[in-house]
Write a structure and sequence with these properties.
The protein is mainly β. It has no helices and 47 strands. The protein is rod-shaped. It starts with 9 loop residues before the first strand and ends in a 23-residue tail after the last strand.
Length: about 575
């Protein structure tokens, strides 16, 4: 080896043989050129945000130019040539590891390639960016493909109100949980290596599920079958669906849809108390159910209304069936002169008092709740009892033991009953559509209270009239004759209703003699001797006599002896 040669210099070379005896002849002469000196102090300056790498090195005096070659991980090379000691390599690709060689070049030779220098570029922007949104929870998952030369990733979301959220991860997905309903979100992600960041990925966009609407309320048009639902517009909603279920036994369902803030149910049944809920939706998602206020429809019209008259008090008791949706009821009666009387109740019956006598009334019922009134029920016509315009009078028919009852009434369209009731409970009556009738089948000796009523009712339309029936026939118990004085002691049992008694003795010729008393015996005097007498007793009051009692026939002989 021959040392000490200058670089980039041509030398003529030959070879001699030699021994102790001396040098032999020389070989053929040939020319050689030495290499240029190698470059030293090679370095690479790479800017993260550029696709250029600047390579610098130390000066080589014999070099005429320099050639720089950078080879990436895929054996793709980039190069530049310069006469200075630095060179820019353009077109550097992201996410690559580059090996850089610098060769000094002259017209005679090149330098040898020595140990290379290395650099890596910034990561590439993530690709295959996908976004997944869970409608029920509004969870958003952002994912992407992995990139080379990456330490970690940083994902950013910005909602439609400009509020940002970030996620830093070494994985290829981020979970965004604190999202808000009804908003749009834009997502980007970039990769980081050391101090270098990749460019941002393409923007991904997604919307969360629409929000539930607020202030859902329902209005009813009391005299139609329509309910109007109104709500505040909800963020992100494209369509609203309102559903309702009634509380009647049929559990009727209703629904309507709208792109605005209201819609209507039609064909709604009366008496409903509706549970209302609303859902919103967009192209992909639906919100949860938002409950609205309870909706009520007009109460149903009361059915099977009846009106029962109480003649005694001139009041009407109204009855009807329960109406769905009713909180309370108003019963009304209207007279021919327009007079209106009412009663209020939460029950299914009520009493209307203060009616005028002798009038027809039209009765109906209305059901109400807190918002609406039903239409009037079917009207029923009823009339009060006739007006009483005079006192009742009654006379006793002594022969028939009957009462001839008379009264004065304002109307002849009713059928009346005159009722006689005794203190011991006996009753007798007569009926007519006139203003008098005769009560028969009375018990003797009783004080009766006589009233007049409209037939088939319990109310009296007259004041009671007290009158006594014919006294009962007394029972003759004994006749004792005094033969010397020609008189007879007559004895009997007292009878009901009698105030006075008359004992009568009658002979065969029809001659009579008698005695009167309020007691139960008296003496009949002035009897004739030798006559056969028949003795009877008659009871009387101020008006009537009873029939004769049983007869006893004592006799007086011509000598004055009893026969």
């Amino acid at each position: 080896m021959v040392g000490g040669l200058k670089s980039a210099t041509s030398y003529n070379c030959s070879v001699y043989t030699a021994n102790i005896g001396g040098m032999g002849a020389s070989s053929k002469v040939w020319t050689i050129t030495t290499f240029l000196r190698k470059t030293i102090n090679t370095s690479v300056d790479y800017g993260c945000d550029k696709s250029i790498a600047t390579v610098t090195w130390g000066k080589v005096s014999e070099a005429e130019s320099f050639r720089v070659v950078a080879v990436d991980s895929h054996n793709t090379s980039l190069s530049c040539t310069t006469q200075s000691t630095s060179c820019e390599i353009t077109g550097v690709r992201c996410g690559q590891w580059y090996t850089v060689h610098v060769t000094a070049v002259s017209s005679k030779c090149n330098s040898m390639t020595y140990s290379p220098v290395f650099f890596e570029t910034a990561p590439c922007a993530p690709t295959s960016v996908n976004v997944f949104r869970e409608c029920s929870s509004n969870l958003i998952i952002l994912s992407w493909a992995p990139t080379n030369n990456t330490d970690y990733y940083k994902a950013t979301s910005v909602d439609s109100f400009g509020k940002p959220m970030t996620c830093v991860t070494g994985e290829t997905a981020c979970f965004f949980t604190n999202t808000v309903c009804g908003r749009g979100y834009q997502f980007t992600v970039y990769a980081t290596r050391g101090i270098c960041n990749s460019k941002e990925s393409v923007t991904a966009f997604v919307k969360t599920a629409p929000c539930e609407p607020d202030n859902v309320w329902i209005t009813s048009e009391c005299y139609s079958d329509t309910l109007v639902n109104i709500w505040d517009m909800a963020a992100g909603a494209k369509l609203y669906r309102v559903e309702a279920m009634g509380n009647t036994p049929t559990r009727n369902m209703y629904s309507c849809t709208s792109t605005g803030n209201n819609c209507s149910f039609s064909g709604v049944q009366c008496g409903e108390s509706l549970s209302v809920w609303i859902t919103t939706s967009d192209e992909d998602c639906s919100s949860g159910k938002a409950l609205g206020k309870v909706g009520t429809t007009v109460p149903c019209i009361p059915q099977n209304v009846s009106a029962v008259l109480d003649c005694a008090s001139n009041s009407i008791t109204m009855h009807w069936e329960y109406s769905h949706g009713a909180n309370f009821y108003i019963g009304s009666v209207v007279g021919r002169n327009g007079t209106k009387l009412t009663c209020n109740t939460t029950d299914t019956h009520c009493v209307i008092q203060g009616l005028s006598c002798g009038q027809n009334y039209s009765a109906h019922v209305i059901a109400e709740n807190k918002k609406c009134k039903s239409n009037e029920s079917m009207r029923v016509i009823t009339g009060t009892g006739p007006c009483y315009s005079g006192n009742i009078t009654a006379d006793v028919d002594c022969k028939a033991n009957a009462f001839n009852v008379q009264w004065t009434m304002s109307s002849s369209k009713y059928w009346y009953t005159a009722l006689a009731a005794s203190h011991d409970g006996h009753k007798a009556s007569c009926s007519t559509n006139n203003t008098s009738c005769i009560i028969q089948d009375l018990q003797c000796g009783q004080i009766y209270s006589v009233t007049v009523v409209i037939s088939n009712t319990s109310g009296s339309i007259s004041s009671p009239y007290q009158i006594q029936s014919v006294p009962c026939i007394p029972t003759l118990s004994d006749v004792k004759v005094n033969c010397h004085s020609n008189f007879a002691l007559v004895q009997w049992k007292k009878s009901m209703g009698a105030k006075q008694y008359k004992a009568v003795a009658e002979n065969a010729q029809g001659n009579t003699t008698y005695c009167s008393t309020s007691n139960s015996s008296c003496i009949v005097s002035g009897l004739q001797c030798g006559q056969l007498y028949s003795v009877t007793v008659i009871a009387s009051d101020q008006q009537c006599n009873s029939g004769p009692s049983n007869a006893i026939q004592p006799g007086i002989g011509e000598d004055g002896n009893y026969t």
